Request: fold
Amino acid sequence: MTWLADYVADHWLDLFGWAGSALLIVSLLQARVLRFRLLNLVAGLMLVVFNAVIMVWPMVAMNLATSGINVWMIRRLLRDRHDHSAFKVLAVRSDDAYLGHFLDVHRADVTTYQPDFAWDGVPHEDRRPFLILKGDETVGVVILRVDRSDGDVAHVELDYVTKRFRDFSPGEFVWRESGMLRRLGITTVVTSPTMVDPYYARVGFRREGESYVLAV
Reply:
């Protein structure tokens, strides 16, 4: 492998530049907004170094500018990650037309992360759906089934977040809105045991068997 080491030693700068360009392309393929910004920042800084070494100053200036924008956006995203005011939880009816449309559009992704979820769009007195919004964009849905015969326990039928915001777990804002849950008379929240990659331990739930439980 001496030839490979010699080649890398002779062409390290070109390889570094190609790696930065490749990472830039990979970043553009990311659906998650935070991951896109982080990868794009690293690629931009690599290209700053590459273009500075070969003294292509317009490209240095451009990549410095995009890197600065990425730093600003990453700080903003991380600030909003656990900011109560960044997201809004909106209660809707089970037969809400927009809710049905959203679930239909994301059906395949929903079943990937919660394979036991089924939706009929029929109003149920014990069902409580919530849309999670950031500005005018719907970033997730939480659907609770309230069992009044079992001490006002709410079972999580669905806790779904779109790919763009999956780094942020905006569903946790439903649980932080404890006043809202109390107004519904909910004393305990129990999650679905089949949810893939649950995040509940990070937001105050305790593990009980295959589910997570939150005392409201």
In short: The longest helix spans residues 2-28.
